[in-house]
Amino acid sequence: MSALPGEINGTDSKRAFGKNIGIREAVFILALIFCLTPFASPPIALAVGLVIALTIGHPYLHLNNKATKILLQASVVGLGFGMNLGKVMQVGKEGIMFTIISIFGTLVLGFIIGKWLSVHKKTSHLIASGTAICGGSAIAAVGPIVNANGQEMSVALGTVFILNSIALFVFPVIGHLLHLTQTQFGFWAGIAIHDTSSVVGAAARYGKAALQTATTVKLARALWIVPVALLTSFFFKNKSTKISIPYFIFLFILASIIRTYIPAVAEISGHIVGAATVGFTVTLFLIGAGLSKNVLKTVGVRPLIQGVILWGIISVSSLFIILRLVH
Fold this sequence. Notes:
Elements: H1 10-34, H2 42-54, H3 61-79, H4 85-94, H5 96-117, H6 121-132, H7 136-142, H8 150-177, H9 182-192, H10 196-206, H11 208-222, H12 225-235, H13 247-261, H14 263-289, H15 293-299, H16 302-325
Helix pairs in contact: 2-14, 3-7, 3-13, 3-14, 4-11, 5-6, 5-16, 6-7, 6-8, 6-16, 7-12, 8-10, 8-16, 9-10, 9-11, 9-16, 10-11, 13-14
């Protein structure tokens, strides 16, 4: 049985690569096309990319970093078209202090836990940002600012998606056991579940009123991508580099303004957000495909432990406060 290109060294490797490049390209392109279909969710795309990386390898690896960065930033901007600033700002005003404390408290707590577990600084911040705001979207926004590589992005996104999958099923069960009202569950889901898609999925299972509350709360928190991204650019500046200003974040704000105040754009905003979601899915595929066995072995389970501890603390503490303040 012939070995894969990644298992051969030297001249033999180049010859094997030359013979198999057509097959590798075809498999890669077919996987990429699959990620453009409705059957591929972001977690599935990341998994498919990892399979590619660990078997045949990425045939266009030299282009991967640039393509990933552009797609990530474009996708974040596209997601801005899904935000109605009027509704979002209203919810934001009602719970402004709780939002500020919970978001920045999560970031600080994430930093402390990451230090304790010796998780790499960038990976730790990405996980904390995703937990604090809106999961994969926040990680996508913050990643380019800290110059996170494929390994760091993949670990953070993978951690968030695993916890999202758990929350999607566990949260409604807990909500019913505690007899949470529709409003209480909506607030809890919007605060404690990472990604908007998982928030919508969990809240929809609980009820229409919970869905409306959860979606609005999550979108209100998503606006905090902007200040967190700007602060990140300052905190991750070192003496030898200039501050990396995340200009695409300002385009995210502009997209939100356009969607809110131009009716014609609001009508097609769903299609734009859909395209942005597909772009994000493809990005995760590319991130996964750019990894290797050695990279994955060096990561370990500590980032996942950090994500679980941080998520557990936020989920319990926010539920405790909601039970006391929200009816």
